[in-house]
Give the backbone structure.
Amino acid sequence: MRSKDRPRYVLTVDHLRGLFDELSDQGYEQVGPIFRDGAIMLEKINSFDELTLGYLEQQDKGSYNLDQHPDAGYFQYSVGPQSFKKFLNPPRRKLWEANGSSSNFEITVPERPAKMVFWGVRNCDIEAIRILDKVFLEGAYVNDWYQAAKEDLLIIAVGCTHPSKNCFCTSFDSGPMPYEGYDLSLVEVKDGAGHHFIADGKSDLIKHWLNDTEAQLASKDDLEIASRTIEEAIDNMPIRLNPKEASELLKTNLEHSHWEQVASRCLSCANCTLVCPTCFCSTTEDITDISGDHTERWLTWDSCFVGDFSYIHGGQIRPSTRSRYRQWMTHKLSNWYDQFGSSGCVGCGRCITWCPVGIDITEELAAINDNPVGPAKDKKSRGNEKHKGST
Amino acid sequence: MKNIKEVLSDLSFFSDMSDEMLEFIAACGQNMHFSPDEYVGRESGSADYLFVITKGNIAVQLEHPTKGTFTIRSLHDGEIAGFSWIIPPYRMQFDLKAREHTSVVALDAGCVRKKCEEDHHLGYLMMKQSAIIMNKRLEDTRVQLMDIYSGRV
Amino acid sequence: MNGSPWNPVLYKVSSKSIENADLLTFELDPVGDEAIDPIAPGQFNMLYAFGIGEIPISVSSILPSYPTLVHTIQDVGRVSKSLIQLPVGDIIGVRGPFGPEWPVAQVKSKDVLLIAGGVGLCPLRPVIEYILDHREQFGEVNVLFGTRHPDNIIYHRDIISWQSDPSINFQITVDHAFPSWRGNVGVVTHLIDKAKFYPENTISFLCGPEVMMRFGIYACLDAGISEDMVYLSMERNMKCAIGLCGHCQVGPYFTCKDGAVFPYTMMKPYLNISEL
C-alpha cells in the first residue's frame, strides 16, 4: 500500500507507552533521546518515560542550549550531538579475539548485536541510515555487524517540527518528514487542545499493533494540523546548497586558496566527523593482555582529521589541516557521489553546531562557489561558459 | 663502417641539422677508443671535446676523499658525454671514465665553438640540443636528490 | 569463519628467504583446510601478526602449487618488523585476495614495458613470471628496474636469470652506486632509451614510489605510449582492505578496492594534487 493510501491514526502518550512495553516484552533493546550532560543524547532506555519531555533547544554555529519548557513535548527539537550510527556501527566493537601465541593461535568471534528499536528518528537520520546502507551493505563487502543490527531493527520516526538554525535538510531531496525507511512515523502535536501524535504505521508488526490499539483514525483536521506543522518547519529552513552543483564545483577546486583559509580556523579536532550521521571511517586496534597470549582486534571510529589517518611508512599523506578539511568536505559533498551515488551530507547541521570554532560547511562551500578557480588551463573555458552573468 | 657524418646523422642531437652543417661538424670529429677504466676526461681538465658515444659505457664520476669514487650517472650508446665544452670557462666538472671497451666520436670543442660563432644558426642548434640534455640531467638529478626509494611513497 | 570479511585465515610460515638487509620473502601455507581464493598478479593480502596488527602486502610470486602464498615484506614499521621476525612454522593471519589485477592476462601480442622502482619490483614479479610462462602471447618485453643502491637489489637469482634470458630485456639502474658498481647509474626513466617497443602497441605497468611513477608515466607518454595503456600501483594507508574504513581514499577512489592497480587515466587528475 502506498504511503498516502494508508490510514493515519491519532495516538496518545499512553498508546506509545504501551508500544514501548510490548516491544520490551518481545525482547527488543530500545534506544531513544534522553537528557544527559546538558544535551539530548541517544541511549538505551528501559521505560518510555525516560524519553526527553519538555525541552526546547537553541542551536547556532558552535553553540547548543536546551531550555525546559512546560509546553514542549517529547520530540520538539531537532538533533543532539549523537546519531543512530553509534548503535548500527558502534564507536568501538570487538572484531574478534585470538588466544595462543604467534606459533599457534585460534580466533573466536563475538556475538551478534541485539534486536533494537530506535525512537524519535528524524528524516535526516533515516536518510543517513539509507546512505550507510549503501556503504556497508551494497558494496563488494558487507559490514556484518551493521547488517545483523539492521535485520531486526524497528524504526519509530518523527516528523521534524522544530528544526534548528543549523538545519538544511530541505537542500536535499529528503526534508523534515519521513517518507520511507521506518516502521512507525509520528508527528507530534502539542497545543492547548492536548498532546497527541498523528501516526503512520508501515510495517506489519506496527500495523497489527495499531489495529489492536483501537486508536482513532485521524480526521481531516488532524492531518491538516500535522502537515501545517511540517510546512512551517520547511519554511524555517532556507536552502543552503545545491548538492549536485556542489559535487561538481569541488572537483575542480581542490587547490582553491580557501582551503588554507578554513584551515586557519579549523582545529582538526574531528568533532564534525564524530557527530556526522554518515561519517563511517574506522581503524583497527590490537590489544594484547600482559601475558601476551590473549589478543583482541577492535574496530573503532576514526576520523580523516586525525594525524595518523593517512600515515604510511615514510609519513602522512595529509599532514596539514588544509588537506584534512578538504578531504572531509570533498568526500562528503563530492566524492560520495562517485562512490555511493548520493551526497554524503543529509543537512542535519550537527557539524556546524558541534564545531568548537563554528565552521559552517555550507558557508565554506559558498565561499568557494563565489570565487571558483579551476585548474589554470580550464580558466578560459570556465570564463566563456559560466561567468556570463556574474562578476 | 659508417663515417663520422653518418654516425652523427643517426642521433637526435644532430637531427635538425642540414647536410652542410653535419659535414661542417663532422669535420671537427675523430674516432677514439677507450679501454675499461680508462679516463675519457678528468675533472678540472680543459673541456676539449664533446664525446658522442658510439659503443660502450662511460661513467660520470666524482672523487670523495674517504668514500671513494661516486658514479653520478652512466652514459651509453648514442648519448653525449660532457657539456662543459659549450659553457665558459670550458672546464671539466667531473671525471669521465670508460667502464668497458668504449668507442666515441670526439668533436674538437675549439673547432665546434668556432663554427658556432661563425654560424649562429648552427650555434643555436648545438646550444638547443645541449640545453635539452642539460635540462634532462638536471631533472634526473633533482629526482635522485629526493632519494625516493628510502620509503616506497 | 562465519563469513565476516574481517576474519583472517591462518597460514603458517613454511619458508623464509632473505632478499637484502631489510627485505624477506615468505612462503605461507594454510594451517587447516581453509584457504583464501587464488591470488592474481597485482592483488594483495592483509597479513596479520599475532597481537601486533595487520598490513597490506602484494603477492610477489604466484606458485603453481595453490594454496601456497608468496609475499615479500620490507621492514618499515611495527607490523612488518614483527612479521619478518617470525620463525618458520609460526602463524600469520591472511585476508584476501584484494584489488584488481595487472591486466596482463587480457593483453594479447602487445609489447610490454614494466617500470619498477625499489620494492615496486615485488608486485611486478608475478607479471614477469606470467609473461615468461606465456611468452608467445607477447611481443617485445622490457623490464626497467631502478633502485636506490646496489645493496637494495632484490630477487638476485631471478634477475640473473632474466638478464640472461634473450626473450626479455631486463635493465637495472641505481641512483647511487659504490665504486665497484659497473652497471647503470641514473634514474629509471633514463633506461627507457634501452627499451625496445612499438609505442602504439605497448602496454606499460609501473610500480614504485609515486614520484618515480609520475616521471615514469611522462617517459612512457613521451615515448608515444597511449595514456590508456599505462597502469600504475598506488599505495595508501589501509586498515580494512574492503572499502569500509575510508583510509585509503585518493579523490573518489578507494585504493583497496578500486586499486591498488589503477589505469593511469583514472589516477591522472589526482596524481599532481598535493596532500590528496
In short: Chain C touches chain A through 46 residues (CB under 8 Å).
